[in-house]
Amino acid sequence: MVPFTGSFILVSRKSETMNQFGRWFIPPNKIRMTKIILALLAYSVGASPVIAQTKTVTANQSIERGKLVYQQLCLTCHQGNGGGVPNMNPPLIKSPWVSGDKKKLINIVLIGFSEKVAINGACYSNNMPSQATLTDQQIADVLSYVRVNFGNIASAIMPKDVLEQRKMIK
Do 136 and 162 touch, CB atoms closer than 8 A? Predict the structure, then answer.
């Protein structure tokens, strides 16, 4: 048997299968079924039902892991909707701090943040502690989650980006 090495395209009429960057992806709740269908397809053409994870599936998994980190560490201050707490913790909704420079955002997580910051005319002053004890993967996951949620549209952050910044601050 020859391993299945072809590529595939998921076609759907639902807009939820296209992400904010106009790329098709498999929604997290459909990944298992998609793997089963692809395994059956591969088997039907005489191929071994070995299916490699695609970059798209990996990106979805990163965002799902990031959501868990957000719920465990960020939710209390930035709230479930990303709205923050007035005069204390800044909102993440459509924030240039979130969708802007990756390095600055990574540094905020690694070093913490103690400056007063004005966003949309409101001032926020609560200190954010360093989260440097998180792994590079966890930081990349949570920041990627925030950068594609709460009305933000920005590229993912990779663990190597976090590692580079971690080296810079030591």
Answer: yes
